[in-house]
Amino acid sequence: MCRRKTTKMKRSWQEATQDDSDLGEEDIEDWSSVASSILVSPSSKNTPQQAAFSREHPPLESDHSRTIVHIDLDCFYAQVEMIRNPQLRAQPLGIQQKNIVVTCNYVAREFGVTKLMYIADAKKKCPNLVLVSGEDLSHYRDYSEKVTDLLQSEFSSLVERLGFDENFVDVTSLVEKTVPGDQSLVEVKGHTFGPEGQVACICGCHKRMAIASHIASRMRARLREAIGITGCAGIAWNKLLAKLVGEKNKPNDQTTLLPGSEQKLMLSLGHARRIPGIGHSMNKKLESAGIVTIADLQRASYSDLEAVVGSQSATSMKNSSFGIDNTAVTRSGPPQSMSDEDSFKLCASLNDAKERMYNLLNSLLESCRLLDSLPEAEGIYAMLMIRKRWRTPLTIRLTIRKHSSAKKWLRESRQTQIPVSATEQIKKGIFTVHGPLMEVLLVLFKKMVDVEQSFHLTLINVCLTNFQAKSTFSKSLDKYFSKAKNIENERKSESEQGAADICKKTTDDSTNNPKVLTNQQDSNITQLFEKQGRRPLQTASKVLENKQNKLSFFTRKLPSDVKTTSKSDPHQGDGELSQGERDKTATLSRTRYSVEVKNDKPIDKPEGDISSETGPSFAKSDEVEKDFLVVTSSREQTSEEMSSSSHQSLEIPGNVDVTVFKSLPLDMQADLLREWKVQSTRDMAPEIKTSSALSSQPSTSNRRITDFFTRSKETR
DNA sequence: ATGGGTCCT
DNA sequence: AGGACCC
Prior knowledge:
Layout: H1 7-18, H2 31-36, H3 48-56, E1 68-73, H4 76-84, E2 93-97, E3 100-104, H5 106-110, E4 117-118, H6 119-125, E5 130-133, H7 138-154, E6 159-162, E7 166-170, H8 172-176, E8 191-193, H9 205-227, E9 231-236, H10 239-246, E10 254-257, H11 262-269, H12 280-288, H13 294-299, H14 302-309, H15 311-321, E11 337-347, H16 350-378, H17 382-387, E12 391-402, E13 411-417, H18 420-427, H19 434-448, E14 457-469, H20 474-503, H21 515-519, H22 524-528, H23 540-553, H24 559-564, H25 576-599, H26 618-628, H27 639-643, H28 658-663, H29 666-684, H30 690-694, H31 698-715
Parallel strand pairs: 2-5, 8-10, 9-10
Antiparallel strand pairs: 1-7, 1-9, 2-3, 3-4, 6-7, 11-14, 12-13, 12-14
Helix pairs in contact: 7-9, 7-23, 14-15, 16-19, 16-23, 20-25, 25-31
The structure holds a DNA duplex.
Domain UmuC: 68-279
Keywords: DNA synthesis
Region (Disordered): 1-26, 39-61, 488-525, 555-625, 687-716
């Protein structure tokens, strides 16, 4: 079934490509034929005509060229609390926010406690329920970042966060570079969804899914070893299917979608609302058109659907209903905003509001302060010095919710620029700017609330956003990036050729897609000058415990990428360009992967029983992995490269790659040298308290820093 | 519902 | 500034 197109589809494809003048207006009414044809996409396809076609119409083919793993952590908040206090593991645990249990552990679930249950109801079901307040999300954010960081640094640079407890990982290139050394590893690990013994798809996707299932298993094992957290994985060829199939075996398990079973998976969901992206309002529109189930959605004519929800939604919903999803896994960068909010029954006086705003603001600024001071706690590492104070918010937003019988959920907001005086202070690392910020918050407040009249608020939210790089090198960076773009373009062609050889695809001409501009994301220079996201409130020692994770979690997307990367075009990022990026990132992550396998010891063994499919085989899994993960074109560091820095100028730390260093703009080099000079004299001083805390894992830190610098070799 | 987030219009 | 979506 996977093998060929139906005659009908073939014909419409040919018509479409031969005469693209009437492509634009042609509707595909017979969607049932799509449903019944599971089609292989030779993923190198896109002639300009075909590209034009696919922009106007939903893809008619199932694209198996990518391999995606979706990781969904089990009852995340509850798990974090159980890690923090292992005694809770044996007890029914609920995480409480205000009046509700937002989530609970599986012990509590056996009593019938569920998510979003009122406290009173939960207590009725389970009188011994232990409740832990989950209103402060700092710890959850912290563990969430650790998870993303691990996946990103050990498996693929393409990791997309969804909330705190979900991550999509594009493992396409890891899979492509993996040659099974053992026939048994071609079998899917863990559960499968769909019947065995299907006709093999000629694109080799079944094998890729099988390899990915082993990678997913490895991911889950690493999450347990390193962080002590469990979760589910879904493995498929796009984000939609990976996410949906992962839910089929919960908790702490994994499910691989077998090619050809996507229709069964989609129909198994029943209601159209189960499709991610179809929310409350879309669902209402659909219901008004008599579309309730996913089968209804599949059957609905495109023109009817378009009339109800618009053409863009119609296209993506149609695609989704058949399990087709071409959206790329987009690397999540550091947070775009930081907010703190409080909800309550009643806030009716200005003083009360002021106090609440102050508390929220104070909490935000304290987070900023800890975040900013972190690099100093790290001690001697140059990268961290550069990264210091890299992000500063330019705008502040106040959101309130007024009590009203009609629209209880309605929020109002006003935002304004943060006073430049405060911005300047923050840039200097001074966070005692409560005064000026309270003044602007008060102005915003009075824009929404007439304080002369009586009022009744039920929520206040303060949000810092519109982060700006605090660079003193911005001119140099611009110069560097314009150069980097050219480098990227050259590299892209090479890797496309390489990918073509591996995948037996034909490469097309490399058009000047705007996506090229975002390819610099992977430049280690970009990452090097990445900005930090929010850090939770923590003690200094806590911060040190986590430093390893902080380092690479925040080495992602620049804010400018957010603007240049369009998610609205589902076809962007799916062509050869992203293939180029994939190729490169694979090499990077594989290099790091092998280092991890060799050097890493479990950092934090989880408490309690960890018996699971992966549990007992930890010791063995490294060996398995070595046989299994054989990379065809990975470029390992030569010993010369490794030691090259050691005989360089004394002013450059030994863990810094000189070649990379020299590629930096001159003034940046100068600034770095100055930083290092300052640091090395500081190191001589007796007051290094952090060094003992660091000494528990010094090699790890060194390695990470080295990775940082060695990365850009791959891009040159 | 809660306490966050994302992007688009 | 609000609205949609996600968890």
